[in-house]
Amino acid sequence: MNMTNLRLGLLGLAAAGVLVLAGCSKPDAIDTRPVTQAFASAESAIKTDLDAAVAAVKAGDYAGATAKLKSLATNAKVTSEQKQALQGLLTQVQAKLGDAAKQAIEQASKVATNTASKVLQDASKKVGDAANKAVQDATKALPPLPPSPTGQ
Fold first, then answer.
1. Rounded mean pLDDT for each run of 10 residues along the chain, 152 residues in total
2. How far from chain centre, in Å, is Cα 87?
């Protein structure tokens, strides 16, 4: 194999790797890098709080992350640059929280609709069964019809 073919093969392999990695990433994932970079030189107590907030974001605990980020933003030792980074992350987290709430409402609506439909079907069947039984009982309770006159 000559060097040109080897280079082309390696280039193709690298391109395939990039495509695979791009396909594996979540398109709607929250990027926490800006906030972690902004806090790179922060004191350890603040970094610990930030790590907890970032962990909550990555775990999908958007309500917990919102509380942690808001608390961090009120810390007097946080710089204006760090507060901007926190605000950017907080905006993304709150959007995710809104999306999650919307999905929960949609799911609850589907469940309620399906449940109501099932209840109505069951009730309709019971009413129909009761009506049929009432007709049968009424038919049994009627006196027999007199014989019809012949010739008519």
1. 44 39 51 92 91 93 92 90 93 88 88 86 84 81 76 57
2. 23
What's the residue count for the chain? 152
Tokens at residue 104, please?
A: 């929960």
Q: How far apart are CA 42 and CA 49, in angstroms?
A: 11
Q: Domain segments of the chain: what residues?
A: 28-133
79: which DSSP letter? -
Written as one letter, the residue type at 97 is L
Q: For residues 10 and 113, give the distance between their C-alpha atoms in angstroms, rounded to a whole number.
A: 56
Tokens (6 digits) for 113: 């609709």
Which two three-digit tokens encode residue 82? 């760090």
Alpha helices in 1-148 (DSSP H): 3-24, 33-38, 44-59, 62-73, 80-141
